[in-house]
């Protein structure tokens, strides 16, 4: 696959939420020099580690993103999260990969890879994803 000949519409980010980090995703139209005139998009992804791993996505630029789906993968070293929220709303927890595949906004804990997988439709808006690794009481649930 070549990004120059294929349309990329899904983005998978793999993270290790054990420490803070930040990076910037840069997009342009891929064919012109319009980025030199300000036609680009950049999304800064900031991760704050802790019992609640917080991912903030801030957007800059006037080019609409081609990305329609985001999958965020957080390697969690054998600890499943208690809950996951996007923009303050807890999202559904899939118990099986087929449930994960069939839903637009969902999270799944993959036992084989010790990874939390979070899937959501994506746009150029600012978003916050929170993954709760806080200790919880199974009896009190």
Key structural traits:
globular, 4-stranded mixed sheet, 6-stranded antiparallel sheet, 1 helix, about 5% helix
Give a topology summary.
Elements: E1 10-15, E2 21-27, E3 41-48, E4 52-61, E5 69-75, E6 83-86, E7 89-90, H1 97-102, E8 106-110, E9 115-121, E10 127-132
Parallel strand pairs: 1-5
Antiparallel strand pairs: 2-3, 3-4, 4-10, 5-9, 6-7, 6-10, 8-9
What is the rounded Rg?
16 Å
Determine the oligomeric state from the structure. Answer: single chain
One letter per element, helices H and strands E, the order comes to EEEEEEEHEEE
Give the spatial strand order of the biggest sheet.
2-3-4-10-6-7
Spans of 5+ residues with little confidence (pLDDT < 50)?
none
Give helix % range: under 10%
**Distance between the first and last residues' Cα:** 45 Å
- Tally of strands: 10
Approximate strand percentage: 35-45%
Number of H/I helices: 1
Largest sheet: 6 strands, antiparallel
Q: What do the pLDDT scores average to?
A: 89
Summing up helix and strand content along with how strands pair, one would put the structural category as: mainly beta
How would you describe the shape?
A: globular
Report on the architecture of this protein:
The chain is 4% helix and 44% strand. The longest helix is centred in the C-terminal third of the chain and has 6 residues, at 97-102. With 141 residues, the protein is mainly beta. Strands 2-3-4-10-6-7 form a six-stranded antiparallel sheet, with no helix packed on it. A four-stranded mixed sheet has the order 1-5-9-8, with no helix packed on it. Strand 3 and strand 4 form a beta hairpin. The chain contains one helix and ten strands, in the order E-E-E-E-E-E-E-H-E-E-E.
């Amino acid at each position: 696959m070549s990004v120059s000949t294929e349309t990329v519409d899904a983005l998978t980010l793999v993270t290790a939420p054990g420490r803070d980090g930040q990076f910037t995703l840069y997009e342009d139209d891929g064919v012109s020099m319009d980025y030199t005139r300000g036609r680009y998009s950049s999304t800064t992804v900031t991760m704050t580690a802790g019992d609640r791993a917080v991912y903030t996505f801030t957007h800059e630029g006037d080019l609409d993103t081609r990305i329609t789906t985001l999958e965020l993968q957080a390697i969690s070293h054998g600890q499943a999260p208690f809950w996951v929220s996007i923009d303050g709303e807890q999202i559904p927890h899939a118990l099986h990969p087929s449930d994960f595949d069939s839903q637009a906004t969902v999270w799944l804990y993959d036992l084989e890879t010790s990874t939390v997988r979070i899937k959501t439709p994506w746009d150029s808006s600012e978003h916050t994803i929170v993954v709760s690794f806080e200790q919880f009481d199974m009896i009190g649930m």
